[in-house]
């Protein structure tokens, strides 16, 4: 078994193999494979099984390099990678890290969220501006109507109603350009 372990280390010099009882983690510069002693025994005694595991080991270094490159692109920091190959030759990989969103580099998710937020705010500002422009136009139209009515200084308005109070309300509404109030009351004295 020791002989096969040494052969494996020579075949994959870029990988550090750990067959001990405690797990070791790799990092961006070091690929570590925690190989179970049962798997190592099977590899030493079964060339077909060894071929399968060795084929999977050929992808360990490029795979880990891609993982670290993608993490950097997403502005994430990976603190460690633990790869374990069990007795059946199955590999499992665990890594821990964090995403940084402060500073000049931010991940794409944060940038997209900020972009959408800015777009929503800009849309609301545009809607508010349009609404204010419409309100200003209505005010100007009412002012123009009132000026037109008062420029001659004499004008005729007719209002009808069932009593003096309703006639007066209708008259005031016509002069001011608003609708007659409903439910409002005031006293008219002669």
Automatic annotation (TrEMBL):
Residues 99-112 have a biased composition (Polar residues). Residues 113-135 have a biased composition (Basic and acidic residues). It comes from the Bacteria. Residues 99-149 are annotated as: Disordered. Pfam families: DUF6033. This is Uncharacterized protein. It comes from Lachnospira eligens.
